[in-house]
Design brief:
Strand 10 (437-445) and strand 11 form a beta hairpin. The chain contains 17 helices and eleven strands. The protein is globular, with a radius of gyration of 21 Å. Helix 2 (21-39) runs antiparallel to helix 3 (47-62), helix 11 packs across helix 13 and helix 11 (301-319) crosses helix 14 (370-391). Helices cover 39% and strands 13% of the residues. The protein has 485 residues and is an alpha/beta fold.
């Protein structure tokens, strides 16, 4: 078997009896464990549960009731509650937490027959752009282990890029799927806010968090995405209207999409990017396919990062207040008083970046500063959303670099959080507007992969994914692999 098979190849192999799901699961478990000493992409493995799920999948394959992902090994970002399995959110605060229930994303993929081999490493409570903030240590980029894989879904991205798992779930609050996908040379989808249930997904910023997928190709992503997207009575923010395209399995055409589209090029993004040549080559490929292009302006781009870090910090301050050493999470040893219990449990249980964001958010919500910071950030968020809505009156998709640059070296921004926050310059505006977006590989810069971001109007995942898939039919960047994986 190819060391980097896609889901279509694995599906054919399973259905034709070339191998069983148990054999496939054992293969990927072994590969993941062997690579973990180098990449550190997994926090925990679910070996016993995975073998059980694979055995059940083999029964479904034998009796002809297998679906598109039945028997396919996957990894879950360790932010998704998984019944009976360690769910840590990359934090000391939850280092011993075993969830009593499954997140909706997890339960739907279980019902579809996917096999969970482990929980992927991540920045603590999904706060970070490098995957250096995990209590379980930093993750390495498989293209160059001295560089970061991006964050916060860096464990998922590194595992997929290295071929230790075919596909993985992730979450995107301000770019945490798209930026690591770009850094690791794979594809990543952030759906429209509300397209996927957040039930059982441990909260960072509730108005921004959205579950998605990291895979080698858009075709693979569609197969998994169709299994867990859609309305959920357990999440009131989940979009209630069913989508026929998703219910039919989110199938992609093998030829060029029928519609002719105009793609917007935001001038504010290209002024900040350090890699332009790969993007220009991608534009030429899409022009050959019949796409037209138009320069657009998104004037609120410069305000997106400060607005995001005020709003996300405020929501984090609220969401993480429950971890107090009494109701949830880590408890300090030998507390001298109730105040000492609260203070030391939170000080010892949370890492540096999480505490920085909690303090920022608490300050923004405090009396005397609420109007000056939080309310103003909400107004800026609305203006950013209006920028996109105005742009989409003239264009069908928006194209930009995914990140300002390539994956940076570990530790290079450890003492400069402001510079670190700039790594999400091109992804945060989309998140604030609640729009769907993908990152797909489009070339290399200094021997490191770089990504192309495509953004669509709300709930236009079909158009977004069909054109992203067609781009991958025209190019082979998504087929490139790290030499040492």
């Amino acid at each position: 078997m190819d060391d980097f098979p896609d889901i279509t190849q694995l599906r054919a192999g399973l259905d034709e009896g070339q191998f069983s799901s148990r054999e496939l699961t054992a293969f990927f478990l072994d590969k993941a464990k062997r690579s973990n000493g180098i990449l550190n992409s997994f926090i925990s493995f679910c070996e016993e549960e995975a073998i059980h799920q694979a055995t059940e999948a083999d029964k479904r394959i034998a009796n002809g009731t297998a679906g598109p992902v039945t028997g396919i090994p996957i990894a879950h970002k360790d932010v998704f509650c998984t019944k009976g399995v360690l769910t840590t959110c990359g934090s000391r605060m939850l280092q011993n937490f075993k969830s009593p229930y499954d997140a909706t994303v997890v339960s739907r993929l279980k019902e579809a027959g996917a096999v969970t081999i482990g929980k992927a490493n991540m920045d603590e409570f999904a706060m970070g752009s490098s995957n250096e903030n995990s209590f379980y240590g930093p993750v390495s980029n498989p293209w160059n282990i001295e560089r970061v894989p991006g964050g916060s879904s860096g464990g998922s991205a590194a595992a997929v890029a290295a071929g230790v798992v075919p596909i993985a779930t992730g979450t995107d609050t301000g770019g945490s799927i798209r930026q690591p996908a770009s850094f690791c040379g794979i594809s990543g989808l952030k759906p429209t806010y509300g397209r996927v249930s957040r039930f059982g997904m441990i909260a960072f910023a509730s108005s921004l968090d959205q579950a998605g997928v990291l895979g080698r190709s858009i075709a693979d992503i569609c197969l998994l995405f169709a299994q867990f997207a859609g309305p959920d009575p357990l999440d009131s923010t989940c979009h209630p209207i069913p989508d026929d395209w998703l219910e039919e399995g989110a199938s992609l055409p093998s030829q060029k999409p029928k519609e002719k589209i105009c793609i917007g090029i935001p001038k504010e993004y290209f002024n900040k990017a350090t890699y332009i040549a790969p993007i220009e080559e991608a534009i030429r490929a899409l022009e050959t396919a019949g796409c037209t292009f138009k320069e657009i302006s998104l004037p609120g781009t410069e305000t997106a990062i400060p607005a995001y870090y005020i709003l996300a910090g405020a929501e984090a301050s609220t969401n993480l207040s429950r971890y107090d050493g009494i109701r949830f999470g880590y408890r300090c040893d030998d507390p001298q008083s109730l105040e000492d219990l609260y203070r030391r449990s939170r000080s010892e249980g949370f890492g540096k970046e999480v505490k920085r964001r909690i303090l920022t958010g608490t300050y923004a919500l405090s009396v005397g500063y609420y109007d000056a910071y939080y309310v103003k950030a909400q107004k800026l968020r609305r203006l950013i959303q209006q920028d996109f809505l105005k742009a989409f009156a003239d264009v069908d998709l928006i194209l930009s670099p995914t990140s300002p640059g390539i994956a940076f070296k570990k530790g290079s921004m450890a003492d400069n959080p402001i510079e670190m926050y700039q790594q999400d310059l091109f992804t945060i505006p989309t998140s604030l507007a609640g729009l769907p977006a993908v990152s797909i590989p489009c070339g290399f810069e200094k021997e490191m992969p770089v990504g192309l971001q495509l953004i669509a109007p709300h709930f236009e995942e079909r158009r977004l994914l069909e054109w992203s898939h067609y781009f991958q039919c025209l190019t082979d960047w998504h087929k490139k692999r790290p030499e040492n994986s």
